[in-house]
């Protein structure tokens, strides 16, 4: 078995007008200055740039390094030669060792060790254009921090995460101003494969990788190249290679000696560097809250989900802005949703930053206050934010000038509602007789009478109050709960007539409305994507109309775990309770169906929000619902301390797509996915055949906590996962047993993780598939869907 070993040499330019070890400017009027130190003359005394020293020591301290008290100046004998007009001292100062930074990739936490940190001079960089490689010396001599890690990386994704986290950390330290931090970070990656447990004798150096994305791609492509060479009996030669983005390949640049690495020679007779008070005081006063700590605090203090906390804390100015706005009374979770979905996009579109923009915290807080007071709705809020940014005006002035303020005076709206009720007696009579459909017509008339300014939610509340309408909709999706038993004992799918008879006493209550979703007479195992689309659309329409105080869905048992979780991921925070009711027997065989419907309707009338499942007299969570046995106690929630009914859905607003569009999205998702239960002797080529047939997402049900066979040969999953990774196929892993999938306990788990499989924690297969379907409806791209899949949900265990 081959194991990958990767270490990074990261260069961070410490922006300064002078060189690292002398007061010369590194470039003036196109001609660099020089002095005895620059020219490397014997006996010349270096003078470490104080500003560079402050920045370098601050980064070293933030990475947990052991600082060297009196580091000695050394000469890097491997520094490349420069043209005659440029001069480098070749000096190097090792200021710290034994640091670390923790990273998380695919939910797996890992510690990356920092071997050493050095202050050096930048030697320029390679640039690639028009098929040619050139040297850019514009930064030659600039102070540069060289961070060398241990060979703790195994795949390119880890290196990309490390660099992104390093960027974020340096940004929080506020050491680089005027340019994006990522623009001053460059990287060399050293890559090798070796038979486990041997350590590689030499590494291939990937030079001058100028973007984090290139680092990931170049490492992964190089690993594949080396594996192919070794597998075919060849030997990987030590060399330097360059990344060719156009060809998606690494290319040989120059040969290297097997033991080639930077060599340092201590300067004799030169006193060591002793950090002065300007450096020591900075270190003593270093109290910056770093990104990871701030993310954790935002989750605990503001109740943000991990994805929202990561987004807000990705930039210090963004997190500072968030806290400045919340300090003015804005609800944190609402603000975080608005920032992630709209506000930050507007900042980027206009090329500004939070505190530089015209949308000051006070102005944004005033917009949220108007939203809270229902003076404006969400669409107007977006228009106002854009107008403030573009016109640099106060929100109140913009709304006043354009007449955007909503009508929220209850007495005035009530007068309009009374007039519309009086002018439309037939529609009012139909509503009072149980037909809710005219409510939309009446609402439209009220909005027209108000010139479109009446606050819609208030209109619906007043109209429902005046018409004494408080509705619980009962929707039928077939199943045994509305079925009947034939003479031979088999259960036949029911229809709305059976369910209507079951609810006859309930329907006499004017608050209950029965509707059948037009999917035909089906048992739940017959459900297809278009049926889900019909259900989702109907629920969404009832919620958006404002007429629903609760929704009950009569459903079968076979696909109940999928439908329940799907509705949770879409409507968990919709503000209307949704209750799924299912029975193990048909109404003609036992009172179970009638009792279940009664309890479901009661829940829908009592609860304010959430998604619930009623089965066998028990109220269950829609997540991790597992069928275990036939009978009224057949379902149980796996991996759950206590039932979860409400939380954060994947939607950030009303679901606006129509039934046809949702059907298309669901069919596309279902047609490109496959659930595979791992079993002894599963051939990996089965998966590759499915990939050839268009499957782009696999849900792998693994053994126990996340193990699978990686024994070499046709039964190893490695080949299938490797091929899938190259084809951008995604693998989400759940367990066949009750328990947590975290990829931490077995070597085979690590192999799964290395090949890009994502452990889905405590979620069951059904809940994960349902999340995938919900994400497919919401996401605009495969990448966004993948992000939604990896976002942490509620803690189950």
Topology:
Blueprint: E1 2-13, H1 50-62, E2 66-67, E3 73-76, E4 91-105, E5 108-121, E6 125-129, E7 132-136, E8 143-149, H2 156-173, E9 185-195, E10 204-209, H3 212-231, E11 239-244, E12 249-255, E13 264-266, H4 277-284, H5 291-302, H6 306-313, H7 316-326, H8 332-349, H9 361-372, H10 378-391, H11 395-402, H12 410-423, H13 425-432, H14 438-449, H15 456-466, E14 471-476, E15 484-485, E16 491-492, H16 496-502, H17 504-507, E17 512-516, H18 529-545, E18 548-554, H19 560-571, E19 578-582, H20 592-606, E20 611-615, E21 618-620, E22 625-627, E23 635-637, H21 659-671, E24 673-677, H22 684-692, E25 697-702, H23 717-726, E26 730-735, H24 747-754, E27 758-759, H25 765-778, H26 782-790
Parallel strand pairs: 10-11, 14-17, 14-18, 18-19, 19-20, 24-25, 25-26, 26-27
Antiparallel strand pairs: 1-8, 1-9, 2-4, 3-4, 3-13, 4-5, 5-8, 6-7, 9-10, 11-12, 15-16, 20-21, 22-23
């Amino acid at each position: 078995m081959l194991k990958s070993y990767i270490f990074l040499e990261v260069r961070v330019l410490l922006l300064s007008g002078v060189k690292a070890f002398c007061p010369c400017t590194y470039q003036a009027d196109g001609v660099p200055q020089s002095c005895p130190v620059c020219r490397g003359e014997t006996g010349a005394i270096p003078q470490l740039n104080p500003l560079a020293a402050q920045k370098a020591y601050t980064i070293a301290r933030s990475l947990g390094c052991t600082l060297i008290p009196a580091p000695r100046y050394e000469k890097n004998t491997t520094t490349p030669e420069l043209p005659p007009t440029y001069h480098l001292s070749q000096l190097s100062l090792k200021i710290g060792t034994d640091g670390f930074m923790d990273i998380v990739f695919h939910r797996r936490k890992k510690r990356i060790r920092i071997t050493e940190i050095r202050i050096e001079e930048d030697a320029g960089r390679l640039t690639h254009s028009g098929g040619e490689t050139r040297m850019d010396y514009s930064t030659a001599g600039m102070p540069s921090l060289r961070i060398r890690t241990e060979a703790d990386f195994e795949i390119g994704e880890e290196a990309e995460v490390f660099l992104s986290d390093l960027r974020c950390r340096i940004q929080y330290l506020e050491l680089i101003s005027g340019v994006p931090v990522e623009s001053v970070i460059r990287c060399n990656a050293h890559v090798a494969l070796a038979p486990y447990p041997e350590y590689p004798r030499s590494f291939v150096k990937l030079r001058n990788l100028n973007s984090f994305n290139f680092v990931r791609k170049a490492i992964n492509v190089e690993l594949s190249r080396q594996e192919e060479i070794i597998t075919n009996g060849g030997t990987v030669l030590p060399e330097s290679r360059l990344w060719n983005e156009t060809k998606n390949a690494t290319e040989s640049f120059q040969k290297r000696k097997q033991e080639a690495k930077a060599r340092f020679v201590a300067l004799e007779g030169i006193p060591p560097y002793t950090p002065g008070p300007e450096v020591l005081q900075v270190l003593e006063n270093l109290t910056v809250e770093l990104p990871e700590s701030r993310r954790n605090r935002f989750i605990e203090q503001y109740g943000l989900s991990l994805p929202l906390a990561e987004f807000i804390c990705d930039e210090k100015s963004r997190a500072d802005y968030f806290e400045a706005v919340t300090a003015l009374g804005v609800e944190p979770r609402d603000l975080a949703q608005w920032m992630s979905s709209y506000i930050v996009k507007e900042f980027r579109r206009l090329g500004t930053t939070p505190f530089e923009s015209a949308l000051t915290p006070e102005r944004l807080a005033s917009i949220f206050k108007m939203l809270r007071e229902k003076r404006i709705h969400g669409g107007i809020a977006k228009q106002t934010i854009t107008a403030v940014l573009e016109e640099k005006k106060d929100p109140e002035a913009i709304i006043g000038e354009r007449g955007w303020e909503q009508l929220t005076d209850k007495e005035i709206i009530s007068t309009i509602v009374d007039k519309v009720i009086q002018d439309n007696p037939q529609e009012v009579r139909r509503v009072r007789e149980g037909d809710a459909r005219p409510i939309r017509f009446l609402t439209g008339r009220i909005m027209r009478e108000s010139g479109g300014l009446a606050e819609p939610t208030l209109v619906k509340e007043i109209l429902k109050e005046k018409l004494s309408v408080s509705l619980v909709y009962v929707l039928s999706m077939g199943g045994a709960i509305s079925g009947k038993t034939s003479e031979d004992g088999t259960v036949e799918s029911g229809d709305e007539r059976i369910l209507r008879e079951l609810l006859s006493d309930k329907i006499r209550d004017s608050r209950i409305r029965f509707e059948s979703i037009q999917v035909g007479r089906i048992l739940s195992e017959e459900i297809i994507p278009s049926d889900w689309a019909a259900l989702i659309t109907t629920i969404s329409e009832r919620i958006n109309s404002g007429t629903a105080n609760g929704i009950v869905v009569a459903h079968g048992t076979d696909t109940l775990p999928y439908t329940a979780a799907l509705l949770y991921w879409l409507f968990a925070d919709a503000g209307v309770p949704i209750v799924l009711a299912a029975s193990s027997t048909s109404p003609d065989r036992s009172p179970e169906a009638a009792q279940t419907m009664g309890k479901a309707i009661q829940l829908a009338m009592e609860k304010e929000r959430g998604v619930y499942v009623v089965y066998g007299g028990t109220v269950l969570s829609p997540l991790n619902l597992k069928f275990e046995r036939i009978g009224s106690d057949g379902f149980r929630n796996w991996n759950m301390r206590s039932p979860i009914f409400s939380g954060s859905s994947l939607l950030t607003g009303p679901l606006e797509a129509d039934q046809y569009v949702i059907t298309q999205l669901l069919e596309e998702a279902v047609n490109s996915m496959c659930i595979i239960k791992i079993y002894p002797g599963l051939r990996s080529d089965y998966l590759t055949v499915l990939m050839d047939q268009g499957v782009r997402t696999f849900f792998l049900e693994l053994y126990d906590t996340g193990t699978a066979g990686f024994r070499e040969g046709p039964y190893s999953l490695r080949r299938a996962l490797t091929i899938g990774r190259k084809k951008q196929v995604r693998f989400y892993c759940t367990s066949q047993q009750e328990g947590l999938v975290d990829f931490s306990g077995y070597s085979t788990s690590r192999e799964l993780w290395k090949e890009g499989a994502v452990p889905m924690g405590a979620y069951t297969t059904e809940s994960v598939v349902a999340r995938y379907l919900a994400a497919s409806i919401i996401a605009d791209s495969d990448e966004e869907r993948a992000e939604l899949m990896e976002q942490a949900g509620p803690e189950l265990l």
